[in-house]
């Protein structure tokens, strides 16, 4: 029953939100965010704990509480815009996206090389993807398999309708989906791939320093860059007034020496530093409502 309610809620969102005036949708989603913030449930408390680490303050500090309110509004703005993406329009996306370092993408692809773009869960990553597609560069990404399966399939169909190629992170029923091989082929074809990368709490994740603690991040971006020769560029995103901000950071260098594992670890740590820089500049737009630091995890 719970799964059915979730599916119906998203279905209604996809149908209704694009049809109401944007100011009404914006007001409604901000109201929901504020109500959720006042309840201070588990997700809000986790967001505040994460933001306390980012700011170096105590989670009970009033400024952290204020920041979490802005963060929750940012998170619900993402959902409002994601549901309205089909009606936002190409012209508005291209005009409203303020990009730093976009030439790093275009010059790399123009040279015939693929590019690995790794990003944290910031701003509106779906809209940034639409911006890249509207600039003539469809890309491939991976997506965690949601439950129930019908919800996952609906999300995949939505993102594919925007021009993305979406690969499952895991196979149906569990196990490895073998997305890595397809991603490597796309890079060798001179295409872009975009990968969410700041949270991987499996044993396959690479342990890195992140703010004041240790966490595990996805090894895939560094491994793909190392194996295919495609450059790895971290990207950070934020909301900029009524528009959006996107920064393509400098290429993560491949170490000249060291074992394969050591190179991947060094590159992932460099990626983490770029994420940390972007999150420090725009903490309210980092949508991390889950545990991420290893010392926050519950013992098994």
Low-confidence stretches: none
Order of helices and strands: HHHHHEHEHEHEHEEEHEEH
Strand order in the sheet with the most strands = 1-9-8-2-5-3-4
SS elements, strand count: 9
The first-to-last residue Cα distance is 29 Å
Mean pLDDT: 90
Write a structural description:
The chain has 300 residues and is an alpha/beta fold. Helices cover 51% and strands 16% of the residues. It has helices spanning 2-16, 22-39, 42-55, 62-88, 90-96, 103-110, 125-134, 149-161, 179-188, 220-228, 260-281; strands at residues 97-100, 115-119, 139-143, 165-168, 192-196, 206-210, 213-217, 232-240, 243-248. The strands form two sheets. A seven-stranded mixed beta sheet has the order 1-9-8-2-5-3-4, with helices on both faces. A hairpin with a 2-residue loop joins strand 6 and strand 7 (213-217). Helix 2 runs antiparallel to helix 4 (62-88) and helix 10 (220-228) packs across helix 11 (260-281). The model has no long low-confidence stretch (mean pLDDT 90).
Quick tags:
about 300 residues, alpha/beta, 7-stranded mixed β-sheet, two-stranded antiparallel sheet, 11 helices, 9 strands, about 50% helix
Q: What is the secondary structure topology, with strand pairs?
A:
Blueprint: H1 2-16, H2 22-39, H3 42-55, H4 62-88, H5 90-96, E1 97-100, H6 103-110, E2 115-119, H7 125-134, E3 139-143, H8 149-161, E4 165-168, H9 179-188, E5 192-196, E6 206-210, E7 213-217, H10 220-228, E8 232-240, E9 243-248, H11 260-281
Parallel strand pairs: 1-9, 2-5, 2-8, 3-4, 3-5
Antiparallel strand pairs: 6-7, 8-9
Helix pairs in contact: 2-4, 3-4, 9-10, 10-11
């Amino acid at each position: 029953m719970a799964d059915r309610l979730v599916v119906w809620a998203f279905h209604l969102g996809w149908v209704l939100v694009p049809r109401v005036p944007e100011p009404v949708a914006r007001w409604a989603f901000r109201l929901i965010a504020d109500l959720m913030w006042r309840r201070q449930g588990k997700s809000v408390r986790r967001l505040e704990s994460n933001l306390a680490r980012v700011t170096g303050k105590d989670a009970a500090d009033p400024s952290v509480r204020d920041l979490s309110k802005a963060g929750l509004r940012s998170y619900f703005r993402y959902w409002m815009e994601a549901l309205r993406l089909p009606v936002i329009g190409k012209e508005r996306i291209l005009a409203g996206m303020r990009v730093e370092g976009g030439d790093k993408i275009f010059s790399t692809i123009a040279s015939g090389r693929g590019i690995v773009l790794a990003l944290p869960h910031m701003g509106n990553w779906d809209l940034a993807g639409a911006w890249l597609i509207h600039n003539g560069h469809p890309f491939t990404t991976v997506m965690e398999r949601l439950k129930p399966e019908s919800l996952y399939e609906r999300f995949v169909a939505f993102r594919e309708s925007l021009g993305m190629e979406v690969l499952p992170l895991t196979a149906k029923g569990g196990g490895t989906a073998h997305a890595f091989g397809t991603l490597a082929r796309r890079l060798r074809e001179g295409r872009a791939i975009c990968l969410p990368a700041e949270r991987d709490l499996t044993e396959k994740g690479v342990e890195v320093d992140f703010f004041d603690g240790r966490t595990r991040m996805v090894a895939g971006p560094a491994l793909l860059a190392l194996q295919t020769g495609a450059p790895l560029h971290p990207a950070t995103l934020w909301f900029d007034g009524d528009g959006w901000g996107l920064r393509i950071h400098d290429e993560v260098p491949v170490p000249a020496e060291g074992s394969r594992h050591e190179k991947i670890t060094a590159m992932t740590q460099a990626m983490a530093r770029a994420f940390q820089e972007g999150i420090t500049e725009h903490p309210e737009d980092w949508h991390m409502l889950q545990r991420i630091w290893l010392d926050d995890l519950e013992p098994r």
